[in-house]
Amino acid sequence: MSEVTTTLDEKENVSLLVLFITFLKIGSTAFGGFMALISVVQNYVVERKKLISHSVMMDGISLATILPGPVAVNVVAYAGYQIRGLAGALVCTIAVIIPSFLLIVGLSYAYFTWGEIPSVSHIFNGFQPAVAAIILMAAVNMSRKTLSTYPQYALTILSMLALILVGGFYITLAIIVVSGVAGYLMYRSDNKEKVIEKKKIDKKQLAIPAMGISALVALIVFPLLKTSASVGIKLFTTFSGMSLLLFGGGYVFIPLIQEVVVDTHGWVSHREFIDGIALGQITPGPILISATFIGYKVAGIAGALAATIGIFTPPAILMLVCTSLLDTIRSSAVIKAVLQGIRCGVIGMIAAAAFVVINSSEPTIISALIFTAAMVALMKFKLEVVWIIPVAGLIGFVLY
Fold this sequence. Notes:
The structure is a single chain. By secondary structure, the protein is mainly alpha-helical. It contains 16 helices and no strands. The longest helix has 44 residues, at 71-114. The protein is globular and about 60 Å long. α3 packs across α6, α7 runs antiparallel to α8 and α7 (150-165) packs across α14 (333-360). The termini are far apart. The protein has helices spanning 8-12, 16-29, 34-48, 54-66, 71-114, 121-146, 150-165, 169-194, 207-221, 231-243, 250-264, 270-281, 290-329, 333-360, 365-379, 385-399.
C-alpha cells in the first residue's frame, strides 16, 4: 500500500494525556466554523502525526456529513476513536469543547451582568484570512491524495460550484447523494476485484449499536412527554433530542432551537437568543456552543453543563455506533465505491468553505498579506496551524 497507515502499536504509543493536550490546543484556536476545525484536525492526525490514514479520515468526514449533529465534533470523536478507541473518542471530544465552553460561560456571565458583548471585531478581521488559508490548504492536501482522474476532478469542482452558487442544506444533501451514486457507478467494478474477503456482521457486534440507537430514540421522545423532571434533566433531554434532528450544520439548526427555547419553553427572550448565537460565533468552537449560553441563563453553571452535554453527546454516540458498523462493512465493494465518490464531494465542499471565508474577509491589503503569509507558513515551513491563527488575530488587533 502506498498510503500511510497506523499500526495498533503506534496508536497505543499516543497517550490519552497527549491527545487531551493536543485537542485542547486545537479547540482553543480553531476559529472560523466547523470546516476550520476539521481542517486543523486533519492537518494534525493525518499530515503531521500520521495517526490515521488519509482514506480513513476522509471516510470519517463523509460519515459525519451525512449524520445529524455538529459535523466537526463528530469528526473529532471519530478521530479519537480511530486512535485510541472509546477512551480516545471521549478524551478528544471533551478536550476540543472545553475552551469554547469556558469562554462562552465567561461571556455569558458578562452579558447577563452588564448586558454587553465584548468587541473583538479587529481580532476576527485577522482570523478570517488565516482560516481561509488553512481550509484551502486542507482541500489541496486532500485533493493530492484522493483525486487522480478527470471524473474525480469534475465531481469535486461541480460540488464546489453548487455549494458556492446555490448553497443550503438541500444542496449539501444533494452533493452527498449524487457523489455517492457517481462513486458507485464509476468504481463498483474496480472494487470487486480488490475485495478479498467480506466480513460477516456478528450479531453480538450489533448489540451495542442497537442499545445506543434505542437510547438515542428515547432522547428524542422524552422531551415531548409531560414530565416533572428537574430543570437540568429537562435541559439535557431537550437539547439531546434536538441534536439528533440536526442535519446540515449549525445554521440550519437555528430556527428549530429558537422555536423550542424561545417560543415553547421561554428560557430566553428573542433578543437574548440572537445575542447568544452571536456569542457562539466569536468562540473557537462550533456554533452549537450557543446551547451553553441558554443553559447558563436557565440554571447557571449546572444548566450550562447540562445543555452542552446534551447538544454534543447523542450525535457523537451515533457517530461512533455508525463507525463501528462502517469498520465491519468497509470491505463491501459497494460501500468502497460509494465512499470514493463521496470523498470527491467532500473535498469540493471544503474548497467551497474556503471561498466563503475568503469572500467574507475584509478586502484589504492587510487581509491579503495575512492570507499569503499563512499559505507560505503551511506550504513551505509546515508550521502547525494552531500557531497561525493566534498570530493572525494579533496582527488584526494591531493593524486594523
